Records
---
Amino acid sequence: LRKLANKIINSSTKLLPRWRAVVEANRLKPKNLPRDVKTRWNSNFDMINTGLAYRCAIHEFTLDSSNGLSDFHLSSTKWAILGNLRDILMDATLYFSRDSATLATVIPSMDKLDTMLATAIITKPDGEKSVFTAAVKVALVYAKTTLNRYYAKAADSLIYRNAVCKLSIFCSSDATESDDVSTSP
């Protein structure tokens, strides 16, 4: 989908008008396929979600030999993989897009996500054996690696360090209520 979206958008005189015509013929809302942007954390979800919604248009568009995009035609297996990925990414996207997502909620969520990624490679949350395709399992391993990079970035954050220090002070058994009051600014 990523390469197809780039081909369509970068060919404003040939492919883009044809894409718009196919979308209109399929009675879909006029829209370009979103591109994956490395600096936008949820762009993978947007790209996959739109791709699945426009599946019939993508199918028709890539089968048209005059477009020269037959290499981008997706098999039913690849569509199933995209469906798996969307389901995985949807919960995280919706959770972290809320107004109430703060550092205090994000770090524990990252911990939970880390655990879920580690176990999702083998089992589903309900304990049944995972039915994810091999490609999705590889993507889960890659996601876990990416999450570990976020952990490293969070550990370098001054705000995170201050929060962890204050938490250790508040949670220590030696701290009393009078200590907390006397050390507050």
Note: DSSP finds nine helices and no strands in the chain.
---
Amino acid sequence: MRRIIPLLVVMLPLAAHAMETVYQDQVDPPAEGGSGQAEAALDGRSGNSSDHEFTAGGRVDYRAHTTTMSITGDYTRLNANGIKAVDTGWADAHYIDEFQHGLAAEAYMDYLQDDMRQLANRTQVGAGARFTLDYEHQERALYLSVDGLHEWQSQANVSNDYWRANTAINYMRQISPQAHILASLQYQPRLSQWSNYLINDVLELGVDITSSLSLQLGLRHEYDNIVPTGMGIKHNDTVYETALRLRY
């Protein structure tokens, strides 16, 4: 039972979004067939904005034998002084197949639009491998993903495209029958310029209210070491999230 919704994700977007990410937050995989989640979150942040925001998101999963497919997305509306200031939208499609015990192949496409960073769009398409480093049924799971991706980006009216390496480590642990934690770290250097990189780290606590409803508390930090100059865009963003997640 090591088949699990992809831990890696192409990316944790460089914008605040609900804790509804492509990271699977449960130690064990969902049952075969279709399943999904819906989530609503209130977020506070520091970095490119200190305002509060509301985010709605969801995901749909389908698993059959060794193959898992998922579609995930969310939408953020940020208000400043009662006036809508910016929008952020994100979507990800992910495919994974564990063709060998403890080793899986994965492919994905990810799209992000982030007004807060003047990011008109960022699209990433990639593929790679996921390794199971540790797994204990209903207790813990540790995964490492390594892949390559191509990125198309339009930010501050400047368009670029380039290749990146992508390395992610994801740890999930059931700390009690009702509570679990998720910790993840991701590093994405540009292949032609290793000093250009993205770092994302997440720490999340989930507490089950019922069998299908849970409360999620999370801290997310994002760092982009190369941003447009003279535009007021900061390198760091930190997001503090409180969310309700409904599984179906």
Note: The chain has one domain: 33-247.
---
Amino acid sequence: MNAPPPAPDPASRPPARRPVLVVAVAALVLAVLVATTAVFVWKRRDAPTTTKSSSEVTVSVFLCTRTAANPKCGRTNATAQQKAEVETELKRMPGVRKVEYESFEEAYERFKKVFADRPDMLRSARLGDIPDSYRVRVAGDREAAALQGSMRGRPGVDQVTIQPRPAAGARRGPFSGT
């Protein structure tokens, strides 16, 4: 008679991949936190979104970073060619009145100033985590929606957000440029 094989010794098993999973989840949470913070900072900076013409709308086009949660970014930064193509397309679109570029270095410096009194936020982001972006002023809501639709899913583009209009009589925020 053959004896049954001995039960495997738990101590002899290879180490589980649990630590790798924990690190991956932590990195994903950090990336989402940084992306959300960047959007929050931009929204506060752009309030209000109307300018000389009360019908103008601001659209922010955030470019891919290695920490972007968008799978189309492929965990890489937007290339110089992708940035140039996005800028060219933005300037060609009907109703576009102004296109401003902010590098990731400028965005990171602004982030550090905004959150100077929040060490927890400062520890959550590093240079390169906050995306470079284009802030685009367009003639109105229709042009903003067209720009958003055209830019979403383009190579090098992570997110496109139409900034909400402020309530009538709202004060300009600390990031509005005044």
Note: Confidence is low (pLDDT under 50) at residues 44-52, 172-178.
---
Amino acid sequence: MQRTGNQAYQPSTGWLRRLIDALLNRSAVPQEQTGKPSDSARFSALSLEIAGCDKLENVLPRLMETPQRSFRQYNGLESAHLLIATRCPGEELQLHTPGAHPGRTDDLPPGVAGFVRYQLSGTLGSLDELHSLAMPLPASTEALHAIRLQSTPAEAWLMLSGPVSLPKAATATFESLSRSLGQGLAIHAAHRQRLDQAITHERRTHAAELHDSLAQVLGYLRLGTSRLDARCGRCDQPELQAIAADLSQQTRHAYRMLRDLISSSRLTLEGGSLHSALPAVVREFEQRSALVFELDDRCPQQEPDENCAIQLLMIVREALSNAVRHAHASHLRIQLLPLDNGGMHLRVEDNGEGLDMERRRGDSFGLSIMQERATRIGARFSIEERPGGGTRIDLILEDNDARS
């Protein structure tokens, strides 16, 4: 059965609905006799919203406002501060605080955010799921209470700054909140994983269909127009020669763009990240050429989202392909450099013949393809002569907050 465009990336969500219904039924508990809602009732809606949200960084700060008020209202912790740390597969660590702009932690006491990041690289990072830990905050009489949530395949930690010894009611609330958060994050991560798998499958299906149909036709036209161009070049009709040459050039361009589209649809990130996929690309080109390749990755902790990573990987592949085929270089360097605002700077440079030689070639469509890919991910792209000879390609990918 043929699917419409609106149906293309719509995997079944019935399993998610059933899980949410189960959570609703389990959390439908009566209020305590005191009239104060139970922890389960207060936090059940939070769990459900997390499970069904699109982006955690946009939703968690708002959802955490209610739990933080609960701590301050019911447990006598007027200065309590909640914090959630999340790390999804292939992404960098993110900190979320109640009511704050995504990625901002200005409302935390001074030094807490830095302390948390440091501890998550060591003690907290190795904490077992559902285990809790309390550690004194530097230059403070308070402590950081942390528990690792059960949220596989994502990693998440719930933290609370407060007295070294929490009241019994606060401890119970903290544990109840951790269970609700863990449920929501686990369902969210599983649902996101299923969506990614469905999109990848759809892309590969479309790539196979293009390869078996349009690519064959364009390949035939490319050969035919090339022969026509060669034949017309031997006749004394300049106008006909120009038309044939243009047809041949445009057909080769269309074929190249289609092959690029098919390749990008099939491409996956080897190892699950840009930083693990780049060495694989370098090894591939080392086997295909005599160039000396150098990879300088200085920001292994910064991981763009999958779409950006794939586009960056395709830009690198196009740059390496151009250098191998056209530049007549002996050395090529790929650099990933961190930016002060959290973004990333990709640089590819060679010691070949330089930009002018490449521009004189009629088949150098790779430059425009790289520019188009950079535009898709909101990056700044530039190409220039390399000091000392050769070509330098720079791509600046700002942090999401800086781009907004």
Note: Residues 1-12, 26-35 have pLDDT under 50 and may be disordered.
